């Protein structure tokens, strides 16, 4: 992030109230610290209270301001209760960052008896995010101002293999966001989707082959969110994400073949249990051709 954009970001968020879900680790943790350092009042939402307390302590020791709200974001009743608590404690919310998510790496043919994988990802990644939006949106409409940033995935653009449950849930949120964007445009509310590539966070840690493929750092991911706050675009993606979207639109069979090659090159997680997961030169070369893609 260049100096000029960083200064604009700091000016944009100073004094603002910003809610971040999944704030206790990974991207959410990193962006929460970045926002607090720039002068925002950050509302930290995640499931585990002890982790939230630790993040709040770090932010406050660095001179920032943070409030914590423990909530299981796959529980709709818990979201309603937490939303009421938040709105009772703050005057308004300027920006909502829907970052919390669940990812499952498993091919469809390996999921025949695991329908709950699809239910769990949809419950958190889609229904949880939508429920929170429904609770907070009326207040943004009343103020005629606000921004909702949804952390989507490059897999939505590239149709990542082995991630059908995850990508489908993110695609649902993406479609919801596109519809909502037009509805709230007149209320000066911006809806931004960030098609995030692979980021080195605890969420991808169980898949050991990701130790050998290109990923973004949490700091780079936080910079993308900062850019979204400054520019308020409808969408943000990497060059690869845009290219994948274009190829699928104009030549879907090419996209399909490229993804199929990757699917066959990389083993499933279950096939690698108990083995030392390292990539051969062909796998490494292919991963570098598609930096940030999920395999």
Mind explaining what this structure looks like?
- The protein has 295 residues and is an alpha/beta fold.
- The chain has eleven helices and seven strands.
- The chain has one domain: NAD(P)-binding Rossmann-like Domain (Rossmann fold, 3-Layer(aba) Sandwich).
- It has a seven-stranded parallel sheet with strand order 3-2-1-4-5-6-7, sandwiched between helices.
- α8 links the parallel β6 and β7.
- It starts with a helix and ends in a 6-residue tail after the last helix.
Give a short overview.
The protein is built from 11 helices and 7 strands. With 295 residues, it is α/β, with parallel strands linked by helices. Helix 1 (3-13) crosses helix 8 (218-231) and helix 5 runs parallel beside helix 7.
Report the average pLDDT across residues.
91
At CATH's second level, what is the architecture?
A: 3-Layer(aba) Sandwich
CATH-defined topology: Rossmann fold
Number of strands: 7
CATH superfamily: NAD(P)-binding Rossmann-like Domain
Shape: globular
Biggest beta sheet summary: 7 strands, parallel
Q: Estimate the helix proportion, in percent.
A: 40-55%
Count of individual domains: 1
């Amino acid at each position: 992030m260049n100096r000029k954009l960083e200064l604009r970001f700091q000016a944009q968020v100073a004094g603002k109230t910003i809610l971040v879900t999944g704030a206790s680790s990974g991207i959410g943790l990193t962006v929460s610290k970045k926002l607090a350092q720039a002068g925002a009042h950050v509302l930290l939402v995640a499931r585990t209270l002890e982790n939230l307390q630790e993040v709040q302590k770090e932010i406050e020791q660095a001179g920032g301001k943070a409030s914590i709200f423990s909530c299981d974001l796959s529980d709709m009743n818990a979201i309603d209760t937490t939303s009421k608590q938040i709105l009772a404690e703050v005057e308004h919310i300027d920006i909502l960052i829907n970052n919390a998510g669940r990812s499952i790496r498993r091919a469809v043919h390996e999921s025949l008896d695991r329908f709950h994988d699809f239910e769990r990802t949809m419950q958190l990644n889609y229904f949880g995010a939508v429920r929170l939006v429904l609770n907070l949106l009326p207040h943004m409409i009343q103020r005629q101002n606000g921004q909702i940033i949804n952390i989507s995935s490059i897999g939505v653009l590239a149709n990542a293999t082995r991630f059908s449950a995850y990508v489908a849930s993110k695609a649902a949120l993406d479609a919801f966001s596109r519809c909502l964007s037009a509805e709230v445009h007149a209320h000066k509310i911006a809806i931004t989707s960030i098609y995030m590539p692979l980021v080195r966070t605890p969420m991808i840690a169980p898949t050991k082959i990701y130790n050998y493929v290109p990923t973004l750092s949490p700091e780079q991911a936080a910079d993308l969110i900062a850019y979204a706050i400054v520019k308020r675009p409808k969408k943000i993606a990497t060059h690869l994400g845009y290219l994948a979207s274009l190829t699928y639109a104009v030549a879907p069979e090419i996209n399909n073949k490229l993804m199929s090659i990757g699917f066959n090159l990389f083993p499933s997680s279950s096939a690698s249990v108990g083995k030392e997961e390292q990539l051969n030169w062909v796998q490494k070369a292919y991963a570098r051709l598609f930096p940030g893609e999920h395999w």
